[in-house]
Write a structure and sequence with these properties.
457 residues, Proton glutamate symport protein, 0% strand, mainly alpha
């Protein structure tokens, strides 16, 4: 009895204790922007996306109606592009270092291989789509329409070994100053991998050093994101100016044969989005509607800025909302902005056929088309994601099929005609490039079981 009495309070005490209740995490809510007050409150409190769309439409109308009288607005558009380019290198470097350092060396290899394979396969398919569009529409111009002595740049024959060696910088400082993106990416990845090895080190000094470096670069990346928020408030004005300038210069020239090139390219872009990107999302059981709800911001930004690298900050913000883990998107998106150029690949196929039909009157053989697919896919690896990069790639593609751009030649004249509408074609292809980066990153995250499914509910 004595023993039972001694046990009783203990039992009651045990019964009185309850297991701590595990609270279910509330769904993450998007931070609501604070309501601003003041003279410009009507501007800042209005939805940013709607402001950008209004700027896009107004810019196009003003450019078409007023023509060259609207060119005074060009500096306002240049300011927007310069602001984005200002933070481009710091974002690429800091996010890639953090991304590579945050993943274990073994896991980094798995992510990297999958991402690169997705990028190369979709790019190759995009060239095929471009060639099909070109073969269906068969755009060409009369030789008499070519301006005699049209300026053109000869595409230099560069050995593959030289192209690969040029990826490795001899000076990282020079690579950053010259904005040689691929070299910066290479160094940032190697540097980040070095930090990841410090993090798994058993020596306390090395482990502390690795953690400190991650904190530093993580801080830099966060500061860049805050700067992006401020820059995007200027985006509607910059968009209006950029679009007005393009239409003021090129609007009246988009006619006839060049209009056919434009239609063929944009139809190719649309087909690629529906068949390739939509197909990839459906196969992985991801909502297409949900994806494009958050992908529209980088799509529109890329469309008006014509820069994959310049749009990178906006793409990263969309990746966060899509539930993509940071250690994946901080590695995959900066890399994709440089080597994944599906829109540019479609452009290569259509424009190469236009130049061939205009100069020779004949389409490419199957062998030449195969060469174009290989060349355009490999060329996309070394071409920077900046405005006009596609025109540089086109030089290499034409060279590979025996149509070198030599000053004063018919090929140079046809190439110059393409350059006349390149800005308009560049809008669509850059928007497609950025969308492709986000699709591939999302799919890789889902395949590896890293995607936050709550974000898709």
């Amino acid at each position: 009895m004595a023993d039972e009495k001694k046990k009783t309070p203990v039992k009651k005490e045990a019964e009185g204790k309850k297991e701590p209740e595990v609270k279910k995490e509330a769904p993450v809510k998007k931070e609501e922007a604070p309501v601003k007050k003041g003279v410009l409150s009507w501007y800042f409190n209005f939805n940013l996306l709607y402001r950008i769309l209004i700027g896009l439409v107004l810019g196009a109308l003003l450019g078409i109606i007023l023509g060259e009288k609207m060119l005074w607005i060009a500096p306002l558009g240049a300011l927007f592009v310069r602001l984005l380019k200002m933070i481009m290198m710091p974002i690429i470097f800091s996010t890639l270092v953090v991304g590579a350092a945050s993943i274990s060396p073994a896991k980094l290899g798995k992510v990297g291989i999958r991402v690169v394979l997705f990028y190369l396969v979709t790019s190759a398919f995009a060239v095929f789509v471009g060639l099909v569009m070109g073969s269906i529409f068969r755009p060409s111009a009369e030789m008499g329409a070519l301006v005699a002595g049209a300026a053109g740049k000869a595409a230099a024959k560069t050995p593959v070994s030289t192209v690969l060696l040029n990826i490795i910088p001899t000076s990282i400082a020079q690579a950053v100053v010259n904005e040689t993106v691929l070299q910066v990416i290479f160094f940032a990845i190697i540097f980040g991998i070095g930090i990841s090895y410090l993090n798994i080190s058993k020596e306390k000094r090395l482990k502390t050093a690795g953690e400190t470096l991650i904190v530093v670069f993580d801080g830099v990346a966060e500061v860049m994101m805050r700067m992006v928020t401020g820059i995007m408030q200027y985006a509607p004005i910059g968009v209006l100016a950029l679009v007005a300038e393009v239409f003021a210069k090129q609007g009246s020239k988009v006619a006839g044969s060049l209009a056919v090139v434009t239609i063929a390219c944009f139809l190719g872009y649309a087909i690629h989005v529906v068949l390739v990107y939509g197909g990839m999302l459906m196969v992985n059981k991801l909502s297409i509607k949900r994806f494009f709800r958050d992908a529209k911001d980088p799509f529109i930004t890329a469309f008006v800025t014509r820069s994959s690298n310049g749009t990178l900050p906006v793409t990263i913000e969309s990746a966060k909302r899509l539930g993509i883990p940071r250690d994946v998107y901080s590695f995959s998106l900066p890399l994709g902005a440089t080597i994944n150029m599906d829109g540019t690949a479609i452009y290569q196929g259509v424009c190469a056929i236009f130049i061939s039909l205009t100069v020779t009157g004949a389409n490419f053989t199957l062998g030449q088309m195969g060469m174009i697919i290989v060349t355009a896919t490999l060329a996309s690896i070394g071409t920077a994601g900046v405005p006009g990069a596609g025109a540089i790639m086109l030089l290499m593609v034409l060279e590979s099929v025996g149509l070198p751009v030599v000053e004063g030649s018919a090929v140079a004249g046809a190439y110059a005609m393409i350059l006349g509408i390149d800005a308009i074609l560049d809008m669509g292809r850059t928007a497609l490039n950025v969308t492709g980066d986000l699709v591939c990153t999302t799919v890789v995250s889902k395949n590896m079981g890293l995607l936050d499914q709550k974000a898709w509910e």
